[in-house]
Amino acid sequence: MTELEAGRAERLAPVRNGMALQRYRDVLIALIAFAVLASLPLFTGSKALLDFVIRCSAYGLFATSLNLLVGYTGLTSFGHGMFFGLGAYSFGLIMQKLGVPIPVAFVATLAITALIAAVIGAICVRLKEIYFAFVTLAFQMLIHSTILSWASFTGGDQGLRGGIPRPAFFGIDLSNHVHLYVTSCALLILGLLAMRQIAQSPFGFTLRMIRDNAARASFLGIDVWRAKLTVFVLAALFASIGGMVMALFVSGAYPEFAYWTISGEGIFINMLGGVSTFLGPMVGTVLLLLLNDTVTRFTEYHGIVLGVVILFFALGLRKGLLDFVAEWFSRRRDAGEGR
Amino acid sequence: MLEIRNLAKSFGGVKATNDVSLDFPDGSLTAVIGPNGAGKSTFFNLITGALRPDSGEVLLDGVDLAGRSPPEIVRHGIGRAFQVASIFKSLTVQETMLAAVSADQRTSAVLHKRFPLPETRDRAEHVMELLGLAGKRHRTAATLSHGDQKLLDIALALVLEPKVLLLDEPTAGMGPEERWRMIDKVRELWETQKITVVFIEHDMDIVFKIAPKIIVLCYGRILATGTPDEIRNNSAVIEAYLGTEHAGAAA
């Protein structure tokens, strides 16, 4: 080894260790989070709390996947909810009509979502900002009206009724509440871990470059269209998993799952929690669901209260909660270094 | 060698680039000058694929690149920096460099590994040191000074290891002292990296001092090409562009 190479190796070694550490750290956090969540039923008999966590899993996966588009790539989709609805309906329909094992339906739903997302994405990701937002919204409405009008297949405005069969697999019985709870937590944690990996991969940094300056990215040899399409499909897959969790939870699928308000809630969640940190949407999910549950208990005008809260975040903090906290910490650190 | 053959581009009735043919031998340093609206930036945009030429050829080592997309042209070895620094404002200097190397090594779509990939490290490090940005590696690009942002823009082009580097007004928006520092840097890069450099510049003192060869564009056409002395004494150039201030200053 020459002196130069030796010097290089010295410089590289800590970097490699650092990267490996970062990954282990994420996995460790995920394991701890899962252990805490999964042991919750041992300490509490509250079905409401477990239900709350299951709903957080469904919406959390959905909102975090939306942040891959909004926060990381700068693609503000107003129609991301279509993949939530698509996941719920595909999964429900496959289970009801074909009676295959749950893992098969799960994978088949992902395949269907990927295919449809690729087609819709291929049309949408060429469009800029507001046009992208509105064309995704248009596709959402298209899927919603298809569900409503194809009543013989989808149940129309009644939704998929009669329950989704949940046969046991690998010793997991999803008709058992605790089993369903632990499975939802596992899907949430695995999904978050996978999305975290995407965000911190070379591809994740390609997305950030596209968000900041797509023209410059193309002058570095990056195929911007292909990268946008890839993340559009990936995000759709995680939204679809969220929809499947929801379908399992309510044992059905309803047109509201595919309505544009779901996409709107996804955007709300991202505004509440913040888009500049990975876990911002997760924080936002918990906030929104908490707000929803508590406010509806006290007043039927919960829409007004939610609106005020959103205004507070948008006009008052001008960012999501976790963005605010992260900024506060970095400012404090800078001040500390300045001294 | 970069050869431009009969390149033409019109916007409506305006011929922004009108039958331009030029040779840029390997390792040459060329300045492109001309009055505002002469078609200098259009000329760069045609070569780099930002605009599609109406006709003509852009040959790099014999391969015609005219009309291809920017990513394709970059991959063939033509890099560019922009008049207004075109950078990634939320990334740090180091992240910018590492991500650019990733793009060049075709690993920018890798999902299963963590950023940055170890094999991108050396090239990023090398270019940061070359441009004096290594000390500012952890600064977010948006917080850099104007001059450093221009350097980062050039670093972005350079880290792809291009055969030809096109610099659109590397000194735009800089004060007099900063200009000279920048242009010394450009000259140093040209000398040490052995690449073909073409730059657009408005400051005649700079052009005449450092460029061995000068191209004068006017209304989309080549008005003159030659050494600084030839250009300074060219009557057509004096009339169209220089005025009498610079004429014969060498004498």
Would you write up a description of this structure?
The complex is a heterodimer of chains A (339) and B (251). Chain A contains 13 helices and no strands. The longest helix of chain A has 41 residues, at 3-43. Chain A has 339 residues and is mostly helical. Chain A has one domain. The termini of chain A are far apart. In chain A, 79% of the residues lie in helices and 0% in strands. Chain A has helices at residues 3-43, 47-73, 81-98, 102-124, 129-149, 151-154, 177-200, 202-218, 224-250, 260-273, 280-298, 302-317, 321-338. Chain B starts with a strand and ends in a 9-residue tail after the last helix. The model of chain B has no long low-confidence stretch (mean pLDDT 88). The interface between A and B is large, with 35 and 41 residues.
Q: What is the tally of helical segments of chain B?
A: 9
What's the SSE pattern of chain B? EEEHEEHEHHHEHEHEEHH
Tell me the count of domains of chain A. Answer: 1
Mean pLDDT across residues of chain B: 88
What's the tally of helices of chain A? 13
- Counting copies of identical and different chains, the oligomeric state is heterodimer
Distance from N terminus to C terminus of chain A (CA atoms, Å) equals 43 Å
Residues in β-strands, percent of chain B: 15-25%
**Mind summarizing the main beta sheet of chain A?**
none
> How many distinct beta strands of chain A?
0
Low-confidence parts of chain B: none
Report the radius of gyration of chain B as a whole number of Å: 19 Å
Determine the most extensive contact between two protein chains: A-B, 35 and 41 residues
How far is the N terminus from the C terminus of chain B?
34 Å
Percentage of β-strand residues of chain A = under 5%
| Rg measurement of chain A, Å | 21 Å
Question: What global shape of chain A is seen?
Answer: globular
- The overall average pLDDT of chain A, rounded, is 88
